[in-house]
Every structure is written in structure tokens, then in C-alpha cells.
Amino acid sequence: MQGILYEEPTIWLFLLVTVVIGGWAAWMTGRAVAITWRPFLQLVAYTLVLGLVIRFIHFALFEATLLTLHYYLVDTLVLFAFGLAGWRYNRTRQMTTQYRWLYERTGPFTWKARESA
Questions:
Q1: DSSP code at position 92
Q2: Would the pLDDT of 15 be above 50?
Q3: Which of 18, 41, 113, 116 is most deeply buried (CB count within 10 A of its CB)?
């Protein structure tokens, strides 16, 4: 896996920086976009910028390569997965809370229209 997903000597650095720190930031970004009723494409733009920030943290703290398309895409895809999950979770909560007479929650990331009584 080293060389494909991460370039650090151990996977723990990748998991710490990209998954834990970056994942938390991406989840909060998705949450912020959902709570303010912004469109999904704004999350994509924010995630691209967040990918650059995480790449810089790898570079500054662990002497990784700063400008590499391969690892930037890996980091950004991981961040996008967390951001999408945060956005969808909070959008589901919004739709089922603010429009409870129209929608009911079917899972943590989905909702459906209520049956008319």
C-alpha cells in the first residue's frame, strides 16, 4: 500500500493526518455546507482546497512531497468521502426535522416522503 495511498514511512502518519485530522475537517465542512443550505458543488470546491491544506501538512510536518498530483488526488478523495458523508448526514437531519410532516428518516443518510394518512 505504501507508494499507492501514502508516501510516508508508515501508514499511521497517513491515517493521522488524512483520515483523522483531514476527515474531521472534511466532515465539519460538509456539515457547514449542509446547515447553511448551500449547494453540493460548493462542498466539492471546499474539498479541493482542503486537499491542498492536508497535502501541505504532510509536507511541512513529515517531509512529504508537496506538489504531487497522485497523492493530492488520494488525499482529496478520502476527504471528499468524509465531506459527502457529513453533508448527507446533516441534510437528512435537516429535512426530517424541519419538514417532519413531509419526510421521515430511513437511515442516517436517507429519507423518504411520508405516506399520506
A1: H
A2: yes
A3: 18
pTM comes to: 0.89
Query: How far is C-alpha 114 from the chain's CA centre?
Result: 29
pLDDT in tens, 41-83: 999 999 999 999 999 999 999 888 888 999 999 999 999 999 9
Mean pLDDT of 81-101: 96
Q: What is the DSSP string of 35-90?
A: HTT--HHHHHHHHHHHHHHHHHHHHHHH---SS-HHHHHHHHHHHHHHHHHHHHHH
CA 93 to chain centroid, in Å, comes to 17
In whole angstroms, what is the distance from residue 62 CA to residue 9 CA? 9
With residue 111 as reference, give the H or E element that holds it: strand 111-113
Integer CA distances (angstroms), 81 to 71, 97, 101, 113, in order? 15, 24, 30, 26
* Residue burial 44-72, b: 16+ Cβ < 10 Å; e: rest: eebbeebbeebbebbeeebebeeeeeebb
* Nine-digit cell string for 57: 501538512
